Each structure stands twice: as C-alpha cells, then as structure tokens.
Amino acid sequence: MAEGTKQVKVDETHISPIERRNSLEKHLQTRPDPQDLKDRHILLDTNAAPALQSAAQELERQRATDSLKKGLEKRPEKEELVERNILPDSTAAPAIQGQQRELEKHMRADSLEEKMKHRPKPEDLIKGGILQPDEDPTK
Fold first, then answer.
1. 13, 22, 88, 105 — which has fewest CB within 10 A?
2. How many CB atoms lie within 10 A of CB 113?
3. Do 88 and 101 meet the contact criterion of CB atoms below 8 Å apart?
4. What is the DSSP string of 110-124?
C-alpha cells in the first residue's frame, strides 16, 4: 500500500429486509418536497423536457455571459475614473491607500501652517502698496 493512504474499513454486517424497508420508509417520509429542492437550486426550476434542460441551462449561461461582456465593454477606463475623482490617483496598494490619504492631509496642513508663519503682516502690505490703509484687516 502507498505511503500516506488510509485503509477504510467497510461495515459488512447484513441488514434484514425489514430493517432496510423501515429505514427506507423513514427516509422517504423526511424527503424534501420538489419546491424546496427548486428553492435550494438542487432541482432545476423549469418546465422544459429533461432532454432539453441542459441545453436551456447552457443558453441561459451564455445569455448571462454575453450580458456581462457588454457591460464590461461599456465600463470606463481607469484613467477616466481618476479624472472624474471616482478612483484615487494612487499606485499604492488598496490596503494602505487610507493611510496614504491621511499622510497627504497632514502634509498639506503642515505646508499651510509653514506658509502662514511666513505670511507678511498687514502693515507690510500697506507699506508695499498692496493694501490701502482703510483695508487694514486688524482694524
């Protein structure tokens, strides 16, 4: 016997015909009805003849395939979705894109704060002729 295979022990005890009949009757009583089997997709829910059921099922599968192909052909390209701000313009893995957005947000805030520190005072703007004396924002 090959290495790694298990030997399966088969129960060879004989069952009396009465026990077999009782077991079969018990199983037939608990048998699900056809509608339940159709709801669980075990039986096909069709009125087609059994000989035609596989062909009908294949046609339905082909119709679904064609519908998906048409939908994928109409699907916009990634660049268009990025331009319309539907997809983020990122080459990062999806798992870290949220962290990337947070980092970009903090970097913008830091940049704005740094620019605000070096902002000219209103008096300097008035002296430079950019603001009129009556436009002083501090008054």
1. 13
2. 9
3. yes
4. HHHHHHHHTPPPHHH
CA–CA gap between residue 82 and residue 118 (Å, rounded): 34
What count of other Cβ atoms lies within 10 Å of the Cβ of residue 87? 13
Model pLDDT for residues 33-61, shown as the tens digit of each residue:
888 988 898 887 778 787 888 888 899 99
Give the integer Cα–Cα distance in Å for 44 and 56: 10
**CA–CA gap between residue 65 and residue 50 (Å, rounded):** 23
The first and second tokens of residue 61, run together, are: 């599968």
d(CA 36, CA 44): 11
Distance (Å, whole) CA 88 – CA 78: 10
Closest CA to 97 of 79, 80, 82, 76: 82
User: Which stretches within 2-77 are classed as H helix?
Assistant: 17-29, 34-39, 50-74
Q: Would you tell me how many other CB atoms lie within 10 Å of the CB of residue 53? A: 14
CB 79: neighbour CB atoms within 10 A?
Answer: 10
